[in-house]
């Protein structure tokens, strides 16, 4: 019986101790914290950076139109009557896209004689416009007679 009384007394002491504790300000409530990150990218023009990757003519501000992975350039960009008169860089497009010229890609001004070259300030052999095409870039034309260098 003494053994049972000791156990009851021990149980009562433990119960009193636990009842006297207020938890020490520790809350055991569970909380759900959503620390997920939205890494999705909305690129309506399809570019890797969200920007139009097509070339721009600086003097006019005309830029190619990016659609379905290709850059399309109209006559307002460059043509026989609107030749390329400034350096231009055509980058490789993601996913195998092409730079598609609707009209003629006429690079540089037409000078029919050395006198015209000298008047334009161009040394013989040329120091005119540079068309730089990045390795791997695809250039396409609607017509096979559309490239004039």
Structural class: alpha/beta
| Low-pLDDT regions | 40-48
Distance between the termini: 113 Å
Range of helix content: 10-25%
Global morphology:
rod-shaped
Average residue-wise pLDDT: 73
The topology string of helices and strands comes to: HEEEEEEEHEEE
Strand line-up of the largest beta sheet: 3-4-6-9
The fraction of residues in strands falls at 15-25%
Given the structure, what is the number of helices? Answer: 2
Would you count the extended β strands for me?
A: 10
Provide the gyration radius in Å: 37 Å
Q: Please give the largest β-sheet.
A: 4 strands, mixed
What can you tell me about this protein's structure?
There is one protein chain. This protein has 149 residues and is of the alpha/beta class. Helix content is 17%, strand content 19%. The protein contains 2 helices and 10 strands, in the order αβββββββαβββ. It has helices spanning 2-20, 114-120, and strands at 56-57, 62-63, 65-67, 70-73, 88-90, 98-101, 105-106, 131-133, 138-141, 147-148. Strands 3-4-6-9 form a 4-stranded mixed beta sheet, with no helix packed on it. It has a two-stranded antiparallel sheet with strand order 1-2. A two-stranded parallel sheet has the order 5-8. Strand 1 and strand 2 (62-63) form a beta hairpin. The protein is rod-shaped and about 125 Å long. Residues 40-48 have low confidence and may be disordered.
């Amino acid at each position: 019986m003494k053994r049972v009384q000791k156990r009851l007394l021990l149980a009562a002491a433990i119960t009193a101790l636990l009842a006297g504790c207020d938890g020490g300000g520790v809350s055991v409530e569970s909380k759900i914290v959503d620390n997920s990150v939205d890494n999705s990218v909305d690129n309506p023009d399809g570019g890797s950076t969200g920007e139009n990757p097509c070339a721009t003519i600086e003097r006019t501000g005309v830029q190619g139109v990016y659609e379905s992975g290709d850059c399309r350039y109209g006559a307002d960009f460059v043509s026989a009557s609107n030749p390329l008169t400034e350096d231009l860089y055509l980058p490789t497009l993601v996913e195998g896209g092409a730079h598609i010229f609707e009209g003629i890609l006429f690079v540089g001004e037409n000078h029919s004689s050395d006198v015209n070259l000298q008047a334009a300030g161009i040394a013989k052999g040329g120091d005119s416009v540079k068309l730089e095409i990045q390795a791997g870039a695809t250039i396409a034309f609607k017509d096979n007679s559309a490239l004039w260098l």
